[in-house]
Inverse folding.
C-alpha cells in the first residue's frame, strides 16, 4: 500500500499532541482529483479543533487529521472528471467538516479547486485562500460593501483580517483596522487608512461605520452599536471562551431585521477561488506570510499562532 506523510494527533490537547505520521495515500474516486500538496496554512479554527473545544463536532475517533486549505499540483484525474489536467497548479479547500490537508496528497471534487495565481509561489499563494474567500463572502456578498463606505475590520493582522483590509481597499472603502500593538505598521502597510490598538482602544473611541467585519468573536453588542443608519455587521467567529451567550446573541440579532449581525460559515467553491485568483494576479491582494514551517514542525506553527501577534499566516511547506 502506498503511504504518505501527514500531520496527526491521537488525543485532544496542546500543540505538542501534533506529530508527523504515515497514512495511506487516498484512493481517487471517479468524480475526484488527487492533488500533490505543496503548502497549507494554519487557520485560527484549527487550534480550537486540536484543543478539543469543538469535540461535539469532531468526535472521539483518533488519530485525527488537521488542515483544510492547500496549494499543489493535480497528480491524478478521476475517470469522470473533465476540465482539469494532470500537472495543473491549483488551490482549494477540502469539503465541509473534512480535515487533513496537512499531508502529501488530498482528494477533492473539482468544484472545490481553481487554478492558483500564476504570479505566486505555493508558499505565497497559500496565505490567501482561507482569508480571501471568507472576506469576499463577508464584504461583497453579505455586507454589499460600496465604494466610499466606512469599513471597520477587527482582527486585522490575522489570517482573515489581513486579507479583509486589502479587499476593503480594493472595493473602494475607507478602512479602519483594529490590531495588536506590535502590528499597527504591518496593517498600515496592507492599506488601512486608520489603525488602532485593540488592547487600548474601546469601541466608543472609534466613531461610526457602514460595515463592520468581526473576526475576533467578542463584544458583538458593543460593536454593533457603532453601525451608522443602514449599516451592516458581519461576524465570522463567536466567543470560544463563552460560547452560549455569544451564539444566542447572534441568533437573537436576527430580530433586528436589517441591522442583524450576519454570521456565516464558509464553504468556498470554484467560482470564489477563481475570483480570488484574479485579485491576486492583478495585485489587489498580496500574500501575507508570517513564517514558513516544515510539516514535521506543525506543532511549532500551532504554538506560534496560539501565542498571538500573527502577521497574516503561518504556512506549512510540504517538501
Ligand atoms: N465563519 C467562517 O467561515 C470562518 C472562516 C475563517 C475563519 N473563521 C474564524 O475566524 C476567526 C479568525 O480566524 P483567523 O484565521 O483570522 O485567526 P488568526 O489568524 O488567529 O487571527 C485572529 C486575529 O484576531 C486578533 N484579535 C484577538 N483579539 C482581538 C480583539 N479583542 N480585537 C481585535 N482583534 C483581536 C488577533 O490579534 P493579536 O494576536 O495581535 O491580539 C489576530 O490577529 C477564528 O475564530 C476562525 O475560526 C471563520
Amino acid at each position: 500500500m502506498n503511504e504518505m506523510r501527514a500531520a496527526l494527533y491521537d488525543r485532544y490537547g496542546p500543540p505538542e499532541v501534533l506529530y508527523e505520521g504515515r497514512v495511506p495515500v487516498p484512493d481517487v474516486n471517479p468524480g475526484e482529483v488527487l492533488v500533490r500538496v505543496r503548502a497549507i496554512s494554519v487557520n485560527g479554527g484549527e487550534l480550537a479543533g486540536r484543543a478539543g473545544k469543538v469535540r461535539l463536532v469532531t468526535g472521539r475517533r483518533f488519530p485525527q487529521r488537521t488542515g483544510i486549505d492547500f496549494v499543489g499540483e493535480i497528480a491524478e484525474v478521476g475517470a469522470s472528471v473533465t476540465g482539469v489536467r494532470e500537472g495543473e497548479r491549483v488551490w482549494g479547500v477540502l469539503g465541509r467538516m473534512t480535515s487533513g490537508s496537512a499531508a502529501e496528497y488530498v482528494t477533492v471534487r473539482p468544484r472545490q479547486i481553481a487554478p492558483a495565481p500564476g504570479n505566486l509561489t505555493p508558499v505565497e499563494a497559500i496565505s490567501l485562500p482561507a482569508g480571501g474567500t471568507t472576506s469576499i463572502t463577508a464584504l461583497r456578498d453579505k455586507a454589499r460593501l460600496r465604494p466610499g463606505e466606512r469599513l471597520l475590520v477587527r482582527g486585522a493582522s490575522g489570517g482573515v483580517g489581513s486579507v479583509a483590509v486589502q479587499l476593503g481597499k480594493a472595493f473602494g472603502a475607507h478602512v479602519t483596522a483594529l490590531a495588536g500593538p506590535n502590528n499597527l505598521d504591518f496593517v498600515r502597510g496592507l492599506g488601512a487608512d486608520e489603525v488602532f490598538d485593540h488592547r487600548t482602544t474601546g469601541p466608543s473611541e472609534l466613531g461610526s461605520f457602514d460595515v463592520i467585519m468581526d473576526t475576533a468573536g467578542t463584544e458583538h453588542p458593543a460593536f454593533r452599536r457603532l453601525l451608522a443608519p443602514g449599516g451592516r455587521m458581519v461576524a465570522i467567529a463567536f466567543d470560544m471562551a463563552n460560547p452560549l451567550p455569544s451564539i444566542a446573541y447572534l441568533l437573537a440579532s436576527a430580530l433586528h431585521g436589517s441591522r442583524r449581525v450576519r454570521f456565516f460559515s464558509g464553504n468556498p467553491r470554484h467560482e470564489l477561488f477563481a475570483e480570488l485568483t484574479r485579485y491576486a494576479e492583478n495585485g489587489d491582494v498580496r500574500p501575507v506570510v508570517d513564517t514558513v514551517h516544515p510539516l514535521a514542525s506543525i506543532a511549532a506553527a500551532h504554538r506560534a499562532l496560539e501565542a498571538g501577534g500573527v502577521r497574516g499566516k503561518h504556512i506549512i511547506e510540504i517538501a
Notes: The chain has a mean pLDDT of 95. Residues 43-45, 130, 134, 154-155, 157-161, 178-180, 183, 198, 215-218, 236-237, 264-266, 305, 308-310 surround NAP (CB under 6 Å). The two ends are 21 Å apart (CA to CA). Residues 129-142 form the longest helix (14 residues).
